[in-house]
């Protein structure tokens, strides 16, 4: 997968992948080698509603305290960390640059191209880029992926890590980290997934994102307004529970009444599958494509029983649940209530230790 990140310091030393989400902070630490990583640590710490909103840390001290607890719980001694910004906080564009420019001229050209697409002054922006290769449309030019985010957004993630004694060495983008982790699984598909259209759904707390991938390219992206919290709300309403109790019972998978599978879970899964089908239809109507080869499901909600079968029935496409730890060795014990599918972004961040 082509990728980029704001690398503050690089190296192959131990690295923590830390995913700061709307409902939890997740941590993954990997060891071993890239061809056979070992899961050393994998844990999470819940966050209260509103502490992180739309990717921004609204309650810095509370989130920092949660991160401290997470580090203590994990038992890690590693201090180097990779974090990520939400995709909505980042602007990415492919630009064409004349080949053979000197370093200074190249960077001036990149800044000039980026400035044309930014809604705020270039001085307020952190830029990074990835050279993709020769331009397919312009002779004597190269294609470059330019990525920009406000400096204060990058500094927010950096400051959060530093507040708890971590050394932030990478600030990535959530969608790119997810694709890096998914790429390992895509290579296990027929013909290693080459040339296949892959629909990667990440079922988050408040929304579900779709990325349609083909080899190194992102063909299409879209968010749908349904996530795991929708199920939590349904449980709370049906059984007169607090949101906190409903969330706990949902994650534990126990203590819910006998009618839960049919009265609450099944309708939610059908609604979720319908939204995924709708997202794919938007893709088909706005591109030349009329099908995908595989659907991959990730996020904590993807671990719910029967979700893959229901999505496959609703969409008509081969569907499987994506376990980011598939094919890895493991020395970590997953705590009760945690599921591997929730750790896609954190795993992608942790995998950065194997890349120069």
UniProtKB/TrEMBL annotation:
CDD domains reported for this sequence: ASKHA_NBD_PilM (cd24049)
Pfam annotation, one family: PilM_2
Keyword Cell cycle assigned: yes
Single GO BP term: cell division
InterPro entries linked to this entry: ATPase_NBD, FtsA/MreB, PilM
Coiled coil (UniProt feature): none
Claim: Transport is one of the keywords in the record: no
Superkingdom of this protein's organism: Bacteria
Keywords, ordered alphabetically: Cell cycle, Cell division
UniProt-recorded name of the protein: Cell division protein FtsA
